[in-house]
Write a structure and sequence with these properties.
Layout: E1 23-28, E2 33-38, E3 43-48, E4 53-58, E5 82-83, E6 86-87, H1 89-99, H2 111-133, H3 150-167, H4 202-221, H5 225-228, H6 248-276
Parallel strand pairs: 1-3, 2-4
Antiparallel strand pairs: 5-6
Helix pairs in contact: 2-4, 2-6, 3-4, 3-6
């Protein structure tokens, strides 16, 4: 434990730093960049966060008071976010449903609802891939604002299906293809590929993607409500997810959530790439 005062660390770089239960006053984090951040238990007063960029951040049980939020953008899983006494989560969900009528289909409650949701996913992605094909193939390997490229996004969705359907539900301990791509801050896991710099063609990435999507379709075609209400059998082997039992419905909802949001991000970034292509 230390007591630090009047420090200027501007321009510094830090990795694997623990600031658990830190108390800070008069902190300037303007224009800082941080990845894989956990903000739990820390306390700060008089903080300047102007221009701060956070990626892969966990903010659990955080209280912000006396705040001035202007031009703030939050993208991610939001549960229990209260602003001026109002839980804004349900408001956000309602607005997403209004803007995207198919969004509500991503919260199915029975087997037939999951089959319909996958129909929606397949149709939406058909349009998005068609949009991508109209671009120079080299652009599909370009990052927009430090996000995944279009091809990397396809590779990651294959990984998500492998994890939550092939491994968690169907019990394959090592279902990963060499082109599959874990999340950006994933730890090294035995037998799990992680090569973000690979540059397969769009057709190569789509061949894997279509194979994985067909696996989801086959499973959902035979899914019953009884199976949906059940739990998985823990898989035997290292990897992700951890070898434990999960509700089948939660596994499938995870896949739908990945599909929905990564398509939204892809559409956003494709618009930027279209501008770059002139």
């Amino acid at each position: 434990m230390g007591d630090f005062r009047d420090l200027d660390l501007s321009g510094s770089s830090a990795e694997r730093v623990t600031l658990r239960d830190v108390t800070a006053r008069e902190v300037d984090l303007s224009d800082a960049r941080a990845r894989d951040v956990r903000l739990a238990g820390a306390g700060a007063t008089s903080v300047n966060l102007t221009g701060l960029r956070l990626r892969d951040v966990l903010m659990a049980d955080v209280v912000i008071r006396g705040a001035w939020l202007q031009g703030v953008e939050i993208t991610g899983e939001v549960e229990g976010l209260t602003v001026n006494g109002i839980d804004v989560g349900p408001l956000v969900e309602a607005e997403l449903d209004r803007r995207h009528p198919d969004h509500a289909a991503m919260r199915p409650t029975d087997a037939e609802g999951f089959r319909h949701a996958w129909d929606v996913v397949e149709e939406l992605w058909t349009g998005t891939v068609g949009r991508a094909r109209r671009l120079d193939p080299a652009l599909l390997h370009e990052s927009v604002d430090e996000e995944w490229s279009f091809v990397q996004t396809l590779r990651h969705l294959s990984f998500a299906t492998e994890c939550w359907l092939l491994r968690a539900i169907l019990g394959d301990p090592a279902p990963w293809h060499p082109l599959s791509l874990p999340w950006a801050e994933a730890p090294a896991m035995e037998g799990v590929p992680d090569d973000p710099d690979a540059r397969p063609s769009l057709d190569e990435a789509l061949a894997l993607r279509h194979h994985r999507m067909a696996s989801v379709r086959r499973y959902l075609d035979d899914l019953t409500d009884e199976q949906l209400a059940g739990h998985t059998v823990p898989v035997d082997g290292p990897g992700w997810p951890e070898p434990e039992s999960f509700p089948v419905r939660e596994c499938l909802l995870t896949i739908l959530n990945e599909e929905w949001w990564h398509r939204q991000y892809a559409e956003r970034d494709l618009a930027v790439l279209e501008q770059r292509s002139g």
